[in-house]
Structure prediction request, 82 residues.
Amino acid sequence: MRAHIYITPKEGILDPQGLTVGKALRNLGMKEVTSVRMGKYIEMELPRTTRKKAEEITKQACDRLLANLNIESYRFEIVKET
Prediction:
């Protein structure tokens, strides 16, 4: 199994990196871009694990280490390796 984890700033939390990227895109002529939010993408390998166990481990990893729950939210999906 493989976990795809997406971590983003919570709504209302200042995102200076997103603001900078958004401004740069508009300066490059992409005036249609009104907002950019930056986050993190993490892949975690969980070989020889059931889907249920992979979900439990991924949630625990996000809650305890990968995401700062005060300012970030996360979502993940578990995909079966081919």
Summary: The beta strands are 2-9, 40-45, 72-79. The CA atoms of residues 25 and 31 lie 8 Å apart.
